Amino acid sequence: MCPLHDLESHCMRNLAIDMGNSRVKAGLxxxxxxxxxxxxxxxxxxxxxxxxxxxxxxxxxSVSSSLDDFEIKSGLNQxxxxxxxxxxxxxxxxxxxxxxxMDRLAAAIGAQFLYPAANxxxxxxxxxxxxxxxxxxxxxxxxxxxxGMGLRFKSLNQYTFQLPHLAEMPLDTPLIGDDTQNSIKxxxxxxxxxxxxxxxxxxxxxxxxxxxxxxxxxxAFFETKLKAPIFVHPxxxxxxxxxxxxxxxxxx
Length: 252
Known about the structure:
By secondary structure, the protein is α/β, with parallel strands linked by helices. The chain has helices spanning about 5-10, 45-50, 70-75, 100-115, 150-160, 180-205, 220-225, 235-250; strands at about 15-20, 25-30, 35-40, 55-60, 80, 90, 120-125, 130-135, 140-145, 210-215, 230.
């Protein structure tokens, strides 16, 4: 790890960019050490960030947008775009790697980087809730996808005639809803808690010494509501992207 006082002379400055379904997040690294996180920067600001921070290498993971002209705008020779063909530091055993969301893969790699030689169940609670499993030998085996909190609230409004759309994060979650809004809160939130705890329990029954690692925009909300022991890492995807970038540099 590079000492903070000597970053420029010894460390590679890396920028990891995660372009998700609802927002953009970027992390500045000195080798493997996360230095700072930029929450939802404008895309046209990224080249200036590269210049101001003396960035050496960039990796981009995008589930929707494209940064095809980023190399030109930033003046960088090395901008790595994560796709299924890029070599990664785990053994990807997904049957259809070309259909795998690269943010799922990056989160799994982030967990493997933080907890090497551990069986890791990665839960990313955001627009969707994804479950991904990496075993203790570094094999990524796949997982599951279900709707996130916002999608569940929205679908109840869009696919019924009278149910309202609850757009704000609920502050309380009654078990027994005494009106329609509280009934929706109870169904969505308690349903998600039961789902997440049930998935963890089923993995726990099959796999010994399981580590549960959680990330995503709603991870902090669920952290105190889950009975199972979990490790919350809000920047797990960025850590995984940087790990891929370092692996790519070693391969060249």
